[in-house]
Amino acid sequence: NAEQNSDVIKQLDAAFTRVCSDCKPTLIDEPGMGAIDFIAYRSGDHFSVNSYNVVPEMKASDHMPVVSNLQLKF
Question: Helices then strands (H, E): number in the chain?
């Protein structure tokens, strides 16, 4: 639950790679808040991102689910 330009996310970005660079908003109750939920993988791992999406589901939580499909590169 941290904005993508926060110090916490900057620290995580030093060790991990997010599946999105311009991440879509994920918080329903705060329009304009931006993304606060992320999927990331360890930097240097052999993955490529096939897809990334924020699911517009507004019944289960005040956060919309983030879904990504990663492919392991050999």
Answer: 1, 4
**Residue 55 in contact with residue 67, Cβ under 8 Å?**
yes
Helix (H, G, I), strand (E, B) or coil at 73: coil
Report the predicted TM-score, pTM, of the whole model to 2 decimal places.
0.84
On the 0-12 / 13-18 / 19+ scale of CB atoms within 10 A, 54 is middle
pLDDT tens string 13-27:
999 999 998 899 998
The CA distance from 39 to 41, in Å, is 7
The overall average pLDDT reported for the chain is: 89
